[in-house]
Task: structure prediction
Amino acid sequence: MRMRNIATIVLLVFVAASVGYLLINESRKKGDASDSADSSKEKHRIIAYYFHGNKRCVTCKKIEAYTKEAIETGFADQLESGELEFYIINVDESPNERYVYQYRLTTKSVILAECIGERPTRWKNLEEVWDHVGDKDVFTDYIRQETSNFLREADE
Result:
């Protein structure tokens, strides 16, 4: 009988938490919809990120260096004009932990994001960086092609 009461309480707490989550999520959606009229005032940005943590292996440092070089040499005009931004971010630092959830990061990653203000509207994880890190030219071509495609899609 005691186990039955405990199970009932646990289920009720679960249901209450689920309902609370749904209500909060729904109110955020409504807030986002009302903010959409204001979003035209916010800056539209395309951002290339390299996300890393405190522990960094040789391969992780190589991904960072190759990405930085590919973006800075392949998109110098877009970087200068502000059409494209590039950031290297340590997600183990407290203010940057939000990116782990925002972009569903599970490892060191290169992310392309289209943002209005600080809010991403579209993003892509360039997961193949791990496959191409052994060949700098292939890696660089991959980063540049994906970034070009992402920029082009933003213009459409």
Remarks:
- Residues 2-39 form the longest helix (38 residues).
- The chain has two domains: 1-38, 44-155.
